[in-house]
Amino acid sequence: MNHAGVLLDTGPLVALLSKHDANHDRARGMFGGCLPPFRCCEAVLAEACFLMRKINADGPAEVMALGARGVYQVAIAAQAHLSNIEVLLKKYADQPISFADACLIRCAEIHGEARIATFDTDFRRYRWGRNRKFDQI
Q1: What is the total count of domains within the chain?
Q2: Which pLDDT value is given to residue 83?
Q3: Residue 52 lies in a domain
Q4: Angle, helix 59-68 to helix 42-55, in steps of 10 degrees
Q5: Residue 24 is assigned to a structural domain of this protein
Q6: Long-range contacts of 69-72 (CB under 8 A, 24+ apart)
Q7: For position 122, what pLDDT does the model report?
Q8: What pLDDT digit, counting tens, does each position of 11-42 carry?
Q9: Which residues in the chain show pLDDT less than 70?
Q10: Nearest CA among 2, 65, 10, 70 for reference residue 30
Q11: What predicted TM-score, i.e. pTM, was given to this entire model?
Q12: Which domain covers residue 61, as residue numbers?
């Protein structure tokens, strides 16, 4: 079992809440194999709420309920790291990086955490710190 603090991307969060998602069982395994709280950012939550709203009207509230229960915590306030996030967006401008991805990379740098719950294969290319790889769970 992984200790608390694993980074959390949008895909596993949505898949966990959506029983009809093709990755639902995979997401359950990710969440079951890690101690809460996961670390995420506002951008991940915004993406998850947007996607969950398409699935059902209560979807965004379900995303927030997980946070209220301590499953995840917002571990980075983007406002305090805009220049660092800008650097990351420029560094990976030739790749399909999102604002949420850049925030998670920055979160890894701040908290020294390489483990990430994600389905996004781009995290195989992204680096944090000087040149550290992510450990996708």
Answers
A1: 1
A2: 97
A3: yes
A4: 140
A5: yes
A6: 70/36, 70/37, 71/31, 71/36, 71/37, 71/38, 72/8, 72/13, 72/36, 72/37, 72/38, 72/39, 72/40
A7: 94
A8: 999 999 999 999 999 999 999 999 999 999 99
A9: none
A10: 2
A11: 0.94
A12: 7-136
